[in-house]
Amino acid sequence: MTDPAEAGKIAAANRAVDENVKAGQVVGIGSGSTILFAVRRIAERNRKENLDLICIPTSFQSRQLIQDYDLTLGSLETSPEIDVAIDGADEVDDDMNLIKGGGGCLMQEKIIASCSRSFFVIADTRKNSRVLGTTWKKGIPIEVLPMAYRPVQLKINQLLGGNAVLRMASRKAGPVITDNGNFLIDWEFEGVQDWVAVDRILQNVPGVIETGLFLNMATASYFGSPNGDVIVRTKKFKA
């Protein structure tokens, strides 16, 4: 029997791929547990329709998925302009702001999203929130230069309050190391935040390489429910 959350992920992935992936495109492939189902759907369609896609990975994981499913692996060097990117998220708020980086791939994910004409988020309905921090309680992931992690922690605590925690590995001694050879800090916060201001502050701290705040980037978000229904949300534009 399929896990309810997994069923939602599959439903969201299938609909996003079917509605947005077209023949001849350059496609950015995200990272995380949900992206597996998107790659499966892309591969299924590619076998039937010969889509002739070029797939650009956002991590070691997505590179392996592209290869495992016999899709064409590309890079930003040869394909710097991407037609569509599909990725998961840890949480999405009413303004389509995202928290990403729970899997530690935030920097490459943000680069690929920024190079894409359209960026689609896929997730199960648990990730659909009115305010960031409602369901995701692990903080804002921040990629940092290893030699600067301690002063970065102190500076974030001074500027923003909360608690900046070095992310430790679960199956190795010491901290998590990203695909780029850096450390991760998770900034634990409370209450409603001005995310544009928070991101600006974080980006200006020397030693911070990138944040897991994806602001004004997503074209649409697909949230799948266990029964197969999918909610599609687009950004609300204020008059």
TrEMBL record:
Highest taxon of source: Eukaryota
A cellular-component GO term for this protein: cytoplasm
Give EC number(s), comma-separated. Answer: 5.3.1.6
As one GO molecular function, the record gives: ribose-5-phosphate isomerase activity
Cite the InterPro entries for this sequence. Answer: NagB/RpiA_transferase-like, Ribose5P_isomerase_typA_subgr, Ribose5P_isomerase_type_A
Keywords on record: Isomerase
Could you tell me the Gene Ontology terms of the biological process aspect for this record?
Answer: D-ribose metabolic process; pentose-phosphate shunt, non-oxidative branch
- Reaction catalysis annotation: aldehydo-D-ribose 5-phosphate = D-ribulose 5-phosphate
Q: Which Pfam families match?
A: Rib_5-P_isom_A
Q: Which pathway?
A: Carbohydrate degradation; pentose phosphate pathway; D-ribose 5-phosphate from D-ribulose 5-phosphate (non-oxidative stage): step 1/1
Identify its protein family: Belongs to the ribose 5-phosphate isomerase family.
What name does the UniProt record give this protein?
Answer: ribose-5-phosphate isomerase
